Amino acid sequence: MAAQGTIITTIQRRLAAVVAVPVVALLWLVAPAAAIAEEAIVTPFSAARAAQAPEPWRFASLPGKAPTRFEVVQEGGKKVLKVEADQSYGNLVHPTRVPLNSSTSLAWRWRVDTFVQDADLRTRAGDDGAAKLCVFFDFPADRLSFGERTKLALARKTTGEDVPSEALCYVWDQKEAKGTELVNAFTRRIRMVVLESGAAATPGTWMGERRNLLADYRRAFGDEAGDTLPDVVAVAVSADADNTRGHGLAYFSDIDLRSVTTTRSAEVTTPAARAGTAE
């Protein structure tokens, strides 16, 4: 009986020790596949060694268009991207591949020194802007209507670029009110959200932004996407003044695209796990 009592006491002590382990630690122990990592995705402009944005940033435009100028410069002791549109069109694109989920976020700082006069996001003739930051999504083309698939295929053939099936562009506009959401005047493949409106109260002021991409994506493309969550396949800084024959000048800081992803690991190496196996 004494031996039996010792065994029972030992079992009780072990159970008490397990109960004392925090719930998070228990979840970690019973889920050896779970390892969470937050990744920074986009190469910073501040890493540039010259005026050209560092790889894999690359310039993309349309045939026959004067190119918008993208240049890394020193501003206030920091390297930033200067974007100047002069009767021109252009995008500075950074390819990536990031699953879209509730943690996916985009943050940056920007400033606009010169707005494109006569720009009007609601019309084709005025579809210009000094500062846009766009996110490209890899929505399955076969989910689009026949007409939209045809237009997308034509755009890809004409430009020689892998034109995204969906793009969400954040805009600093001179006229439209903050929070305005628009479908691009040329194509439903682009949706726009106005984050800043008009000149800053103090000239030269930088404005900081942070967006939850999943929430913004659902507002912009929920009508066609339903429950589908496409990957983020690129971000692009864009500026154009080709339709209005105008001029715009803006600046962008480093762009921070982040996503919390789950990876698989062969074994758990936390102290709690090691103590458990030692027992």
Describe the structure.
The chain has 279 residues and is an alpha+beta fold. It has two domains: 1-31; 37-263, Galactose-binding lectin (Jelly Rolls), CATH 2.60.120.430. The protein contains five helices and 14 strands. Strands 1, 3, 4, 6, 11, 13 and 14 form a seven-stranded antiparallel beta sheet that branches. The chain is globular, with a radius of gyration of 25 Å. The model is unreliable at 1-37 and 263-279 (pLDDT under 50).
Number of helices: 5
Detail the poorly predicted runs. 1-37, 263-279
Question: Can you write the helix and strand succession as a string?
Answer: HHEEEEEEEHEEEEHEEEH
For the sheet with most strands, the description reads:
7 strands, antiparallel
Report the CATH superfamily of the largest domain.
Galactose-binding lectin
Instruction: Compute the number of strand runs.
Output: 14
| Count of the separate structural domains | 2
What structural class is derived from the secondary structure elements? alpha+beta
CATH class of the largest domain: Mainly Beta
Percent of residues in beta strands? 35-45%
Radius of gyration: 25 Å
Percent in helix = 10-25%
Mean pLDDT: 83
CATH architecture of the largest domain: Sandwich
Indicate the overall shape.
globular
First-to-last CA distance: 25 Å
